[in-house]
Q: What sequence folds into this?
């Protein structure tokens, strides 16, 4: 495996990350914002929930991102009869050796695609909780560490589709972000049709990073400076969700940490060594909205969590900014 390109990693991480984004864009057309958000989540070591109708490229995006980042890849096709052991792995008795041998499941990979997560049973959904939060799995009383980095990219179809089980709040809170891809524009769909016969497939994606480089970028993201005023702003937003008359469940302290980490990663992606309020505003929706629960009376008035959160972001003042923000629009 090649050595990390330290001159690029230390001096110009933005150029390296931009190259990854552009490479994925060659395959997943018109989804730059979603690509960047997934890359931000991976830089944080956080999990992503991709929700949308079938056929808009959720699975393709997850597979392509894994390959472009040089990560090992595992796929779990979630079905109603999927068992927890199908996810974590099993211990098999070896008669010749008179011992048990652990055969790892697809969860033992750097990036794991849990396809159509809400089509499997709640029992199997809960089997992912330990892996997502504790970074290990337990099989027959033995604990096995998961590789680093470890990120779950789960896709789900919107509720109301046939055979969909709602994810519990405890599991939703484990996802750093929830992303909706949306339908392509007419121009993007035309471009997709024009290159349908000779399009580059995810199988042809090449790795642009080594695991060592990805881990170094993760470390740099964690070290990106966030002023106390930025942390205060995040706390104000999160506390506002807990006081909102439209919401019965606000964001947790885990959400505050997630929003800070995501803002640090976005700053690195933008080529800055510090976080600005716009980083927080841009990521408040993907990081916080899926953790919120709308009051029944508010839902009757067609108020959804995203709308309530947009109102909170609009009405929450930004604390006084230090001179290091350099006059960035707020």
A:
């Amino acid at each position: 495996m090649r050595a990390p390109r330290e001159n690029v990693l230390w001096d110009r991480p933005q150029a390296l990350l931009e190259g990854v984004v552009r490479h994925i864009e060659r395959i997943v057309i018109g989804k730059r914002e979603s690509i960047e958000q997934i890359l931000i989540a991976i830089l944080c070591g956080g999990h992503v929930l991709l929700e949308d109708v079938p056929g808009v490229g959720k699975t393709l995006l997850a597979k392509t991102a894994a390959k472009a980042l040089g990560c090992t890849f595992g796929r779990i096709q979630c079905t109603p009869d999927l068992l927890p052991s199908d996810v974590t792995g099993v211990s098999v008795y070896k008669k010749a050796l008179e011992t048990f041998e652990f055969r790892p499941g697809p969860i033992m990979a750097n990036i794991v695609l849990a396809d159509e997560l809400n089509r499997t049973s709640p029992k199997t959904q809960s089997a992912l909780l330990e892996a997502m939060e504790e970074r290990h799995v337990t099989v027959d009383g033995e604990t096995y560490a998961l590789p680093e980095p470890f990120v779950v990219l789960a896709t789900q179809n919107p509720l109301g589709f046939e055979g969909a089980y709602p994810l519990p709040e405890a599991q939703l809170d484990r996802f750093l972000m929830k992303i909706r891809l949306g339908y392509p524009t007419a121009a993007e769909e035309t471009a997709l049709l024009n290159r349908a016969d000779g399009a580059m497939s995810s199988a042809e994606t090449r790795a642009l990073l080594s695991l060592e480089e990805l881990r170094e970028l993760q470390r740099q993201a964690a070290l990106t400076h966030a002023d106390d005023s930025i942390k205060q702003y995040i706390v104000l937003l999160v506390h506002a969700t807990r006081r909102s008359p439209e919401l019965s469940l606000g964001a947790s302290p885990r959400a505050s940490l997630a929003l800070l980490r995501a803002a640090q990663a976005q700053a690195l992606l933008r080529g800055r060594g510090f976080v600005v309020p716009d980083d927080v505003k841009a990521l408040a929706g993907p990081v916080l909205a899926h953790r919120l629960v709308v009051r029944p009376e508010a839902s009757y008035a067609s108020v959804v969590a995203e709308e309530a959160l947009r109102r909170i972001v609009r009405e929450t003042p930004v604390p006084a900014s230090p001179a290091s923000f350099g006059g960035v629009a707020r």
